Amino acid sequence: GDSVTQMEGPVTLSEEAFLTINCTYTATGYPSLFWYVQYPGEGLQLLLKATKADDKGSNKGFEATYRKETTSFHLEKGSVQVSDSAVYFCALRVSGGGADGLTFGKGTHLIIQP
Amino acid sequence: KAGVTQTPRYLIKTRGQQVTLSCSPISGHRSVSWYQQTPGQGLQFLFEYFSETQRNKGNFPGRFSGRQFSNSRSEMNVSTLELGDSALYLCASSGGRELNEQFFGPGTRLTVL
Questions:
Q1: Using an 8 Å Cβ cutoff, are B34 and B76 in contact?
Q2: Pairing mode, if any, of strands B10-13 and B108-112?
């Protein structure tokens, strides 16, 4: 079956530090890849996505590149802010509007200290 | 455009009871998915509905069921509640050109005592 593996953390960084959250996947088909963010007490918000190999998703300073050869979709940000503190989820869904839901990683708790 | 709404936001039940949660998708979205989020198991797919038909179901017991109405609103029901059913239940809708992109509601926090 499909699966997503990501570092669980917590990951603690100082403000303005460089961020990398690793994400690797296995999929039975050709997946679309996503990063979602969850702030305390809230639902999930889509942060960025990529639907085919070598696509780069970007939003709010975050970036991730779909690497088919390494089955990875690592999340990066050049300079984090305290407001980036949240839980980040890597997810996949097999393309074609497939009948299966999103498959999520366990989530990475990110803490940014001022 | 209004986002996905879920009601109620918080719910407390006792073991053995049943519960119904409601989800209203983004206007125009015909697909609604449900997920369970717990600290131990993380986010797990429950089921997806499209045009009133269940398209797929995750690995959950038959106590978990759902339905979708003609206006795309969806409900999920859990019967004979167990302590382990305590979780955040998230609903997501998708539609239009980006069928793979799901938009999530704020969730319903269910506590089973």
A1: yes
A2: parallel
CB B68 within 8 A of CB B32: yes
A107 close contact with B: CB closer than 8 A: yes
For A2-18, the DSSP string reads: -EEEE----EEEETT--
d(CA A76, CA A63): 5
B-interface mutation test, from A42, A46, A102, A106, most B Cβ less than 10 A away: A102
pLDDT tens, position by position, A7-25: 888 999 999 999 999 999 9
Whole-number Å distance between alpha carbons of B107 and B78: 15
Q: Is A65 helix (H, G, I), strand (E, B) or coil?
A: strand
Beta bridge partners of B66: B76
